[in-house]
Amino acid sequence: MGCGEWARLQKAVLMARWQFETRNEQVGYSARLDPPALELLSLGPGLYGELLENFREFGVSLADIRTAGEPNSVVSQSVSILFGKDPGALLQLRLEQIEFIASSLSTEEMNLYSSILQKATYWLLERSQTSLRAYDLSYHAHGEVVGTTARDFLQSLTGELVLEGPGEPVGHGVIFRWRDPARERSTSLTLDHSLSLADGIYIGYSVKGVRHPSDMQVFANEHRKTLYDLLDRLGLLLGD
After folding, report:
1. φ, ψ for residue 200 (rounded to 5)?
2. What is the Cα–Cα distance from 223 to 186, expressed in whole angstroms?
3. Contacts of 192 (CB under 8 A, 6+ apart)
4. Which residues contact 181 (CB under 8 A, 6 or more apart)?
5. Rounded CA gap, 173 and 201, in Å?
6. Exposed, middle or buried by CB within 10 Å (0-12, 13-18, 19+), for 145?
7. How do beta strands 131-145 and 201-209 pair?
8. pTM for this predicted structure
9. What sign for the dihedral angle of Cα 52, 111, 109, 188?
């Protein structure tokens, strides 16, 4: 493909707009606690009362607080809090890590999840000598592109590249990666054929950083906007 043809293809991609219909999606977040939040061990049964009091405003009851872990392994011990009904969201506290995962992602719910994470991190920092370090934010979605096939949409991003191999080519995806040394973080965006949805598209967005954000609401809004903008520039509209 010549330079002129490639430029025309890029222009066509930027002009095209395809609606992405989400079938299932999930957002995940985790951060390392350094040093480990060993002070949580001293709370004993009082830990559950504190969690109940702090998250009651989000509709949490005692039945939503669960414990897990191997009896002889301190590092494996965890306390989880379930928010909402199926699919809902799950916050998990470990001595060395905090994790959050959710599968219902309207704009209203995403704002709620940011508030939950902000409260959880404040509470952790108040109750222990730990600090939040390296973090990992991820978004995964499977859906369909209205008005075209998965193969045609992905091919519009990569051109007529075909690699002969052990069988009939069924298409391929694309991965974009960025580094931001000033913020000490890396970002990646993956678009590929969905392995769980016939003629579907998989979207994967990942951000890994060293310096933990101080405001989870700002952090969530920033990356939601970044993801939408990147997909829009590829001709894919993602939204509620």
Report:
1. -110, 165
2. 12
3. 154, 172, 173, 174, 201, 202, 204
4. none
5. 9
6. buried
7. antiparallel
8. 0.86
9. negative
Helix (H, G, I), strand (E, B) or coil at 153: helix
Which tokens sit at 88?
């809902």
**Tens digits of residue pLDDT in 22-45:** 999 999 999 999 999 999 888 888
Residue 167 DSSP code? B
| CB burial of residue 207 (10 Å; 0-12, 13-18, 19+) | buried
Q: Which residues contact 121 (CB under 8 A, 6 or more apart)?
A: 31, 98, 132, 216
Check: CB of residue 148 under 8 Å from CB of residue 18: yes
Comparing C-alpha atoms, which of 1, 22, 13 is closest to residue 154?
13
* DSSP string for 125-146: HHHSS-EEEEEEEEEEEEEEET
The position carrying tokens 């095209």 is 16
Token pair belonging to 90: 């799950």
Q: What is the pLDDT of residues 77-110, one digit of tens each?
A: 899 999 987 668 999 999 999 999 998 767 778 7
CA–CA distance, 174 with 190 (Å, rounded to integer): 6
* Vertex 103 angle, CA 97 and 108, to 5°: 100
